[in-house]
């Protein structure tokens, strides 16, 4: 194995960028998004409660008050439970957060299905036909719960996405070899050791030649980082295992983030943030979140690399944006994560809108192959509906 590493950003510069970019700008955006989420969450709970209380006869009297109290508690459960996981990892914190996360998916789908039920009522009223809304309500709510059950088990099921790419300047030694890419495991207080073992065993069974991890390994909550690093340390590849950080690593406190990187490094996972490494004739570039979230910073980072146009170059980057910067600098393949392909139906159209057509799947930008993965984990509701938890197997032909 031949390797040559070029460091673009030093450790101290990384620390400063994590603080000023991660701890300031990113957290302002993040907290603002959570505030907007909470407002929408309240509206959804109110509408679902009014629908259920109106059309399900069994919900009356004391039951209605009890249901209202439960909705009030659950409505304000997710955000506090999420923040609580930042500094504690107890049985109670895990139970509350998991319950709140599951409920967030359930209430979304119940809202979606009762909206369909209300549309049915409007159509029947319009044509002058009667409909038993109590039966319709129970059928549609049961359907919503069935979808959630499917989504829960589907999220835990690992799928292999196989890509065969033709790149002119790929060294002969790399043809037919397996490059494994995955991202967004989001290990934390919902996705834990059992799923980590499952992912590692699945990848090892594929006999990879190199493994690339595209960020958001952890979700930002407090977990037994040492244990999780050891589990990931069981990953085996001929040419090694490499990772970059994503936005969820930036959300963690700086000292914790750096210690996590050290733990992963101690278990033979190489951090490529701000680095270029030659692996048997292919340049692997790690554009960590702090190097690539800003377009100008990403441009400066790529420019410093002095990439050779006659050499195959693969860039790992978490968020599928600023593609034009790298695509005009002799990049052959860019690998992204972050979007989860929206994770749950019917929102799959949103990533492509936000990321200008690169929200999911294999695309091209000029001569550059671009692949955005749906990720292998979940955040928020532990459901996947209309998407899969995928491990990407890339071979050059």
Automatic annotation (TrEMBL):
CDD domains: MPP_YkuE_C (cd07385). SUPFAM superfamilies: Metallo-dependent phosphatases (SSF56300). The chain crosses the membrane at residues 28-56, 62-83, 95-123, 129-153. Coiled coil: none annotated. One of its GO terms (molecular function) is hydrolase activity. The keyword Transmembrane applies. Residues 179-341 form the Calcineurin-like phosphoesterase domain. Gene3D superfamilies: 3.60.21.10. It holds the Pfam family Metallophos. Keywords: Membrane, Transmembrane, Transmembrane helix. InterPro entries: Calcineurin-like_PHP (IPR004843), Metallo-depent_PP-like (IPR029052), Metallophosphoesterase_sf (IPR051158). PANTHER family: TRANSMEMBRANE PROTEIN WITH METALLOPHOSPHOESTERASE DOMAIN (PTHR31302:SF0), TRANSMEMBRANE PROTEIN WITH METALLOPHOSPHOESTERASE DOMAIN-RELATED (PTHR31302). This is Calcineurin-like phosphoesterase domain-containing protein.
């Amino acid at each position: 194995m031949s390797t040559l590493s070029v460091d673009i950003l030093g450790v101290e510069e990384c620390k400063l960028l994590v603080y000023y970019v991660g701890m300031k700008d990113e957290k302002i955006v993040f907290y603002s998004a959570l505030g907007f989420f909470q407002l929408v969450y309240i509206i959804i709970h109110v509408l679902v409660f009014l629908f259920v209380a109106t059309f399900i006869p069994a919900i009356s009297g004391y039951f209605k008050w009890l249901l209202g109290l439960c909705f009030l508690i659950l409505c304000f459960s997710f955000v506090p439970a999420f923040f609580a996981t930042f500094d504690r990892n107890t049985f109670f914190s895990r139970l509350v957060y998991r319950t709140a996360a599951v409920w967030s998916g359930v209430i979304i789908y119940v809202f979606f299905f009762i909206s369909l039920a209300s549309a049915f009522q409007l159509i029947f009223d319009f044509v002058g036909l009667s409909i038993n809304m109590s039966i319709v309500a129970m059928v549609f709510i049961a359907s919503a719960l069935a979808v959630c059950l499917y989504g829960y088990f589907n999220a835990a099921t690992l799928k292999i996405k196989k890509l065969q790419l033709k790149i002119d300047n790929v060294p002969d030694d790399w043809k037919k070899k397996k490059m494994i890419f995955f991202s967004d495991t989001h290990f934390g207080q919902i996705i834990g050791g059992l799923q980590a073992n499952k992912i590692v065993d699945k990848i090892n069974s594929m006999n990879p030649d190199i493994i690339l991890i595209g960020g958001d390994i952890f979700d930002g909550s407090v977990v037994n980082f040492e244990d999780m690093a050891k589990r990931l340390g069981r990953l085996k590849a001929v040419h090694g295992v490499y990772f970059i950080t994503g936005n969820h690593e930036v959300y963690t406190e700086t000292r914790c983030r750096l210690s996590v990187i050290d733990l992963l490094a101690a278990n033979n996972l190489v951090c490529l943030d701000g680095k270029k490494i030659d692996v048997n004739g292919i340049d692997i570039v790690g554009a960590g979140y702090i190097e690539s979230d800003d377009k100008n910073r990403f441009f400066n980072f790529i420019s410093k690399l002095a990439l050779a146009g006659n050499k195959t170059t693969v860039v790992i980057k978490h968020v599928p944006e600023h593609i034009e910067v790298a695509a005009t600098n002799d990049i052959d393949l860019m690998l992204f994560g972050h979007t989860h392909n929206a994770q749950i139906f019917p929102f799959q159209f949103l990533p492509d809108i936000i990321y200008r057509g690169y929200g999911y799947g294999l695309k091209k930008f000029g001569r550059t192959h671009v692949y955005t993965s749906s990720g292998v984990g979940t955040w928020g509701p532990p459901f996947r509906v209309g998407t899969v938890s995928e491990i990407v197997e890339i071979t050059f032909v």
